[in-house]
Amino acid sequence: MICNVELIITVKPEVRDPEGESIKMYAVNKVNDSVAEVRAGKYLLFKLESDTCENALSKVKEIAEKARLYNPIIQEIQVRSA
Question: Which of 2, 15, 24 lies closest to 70 in space, CA to CA?
Answer without folding.
Answer: 15
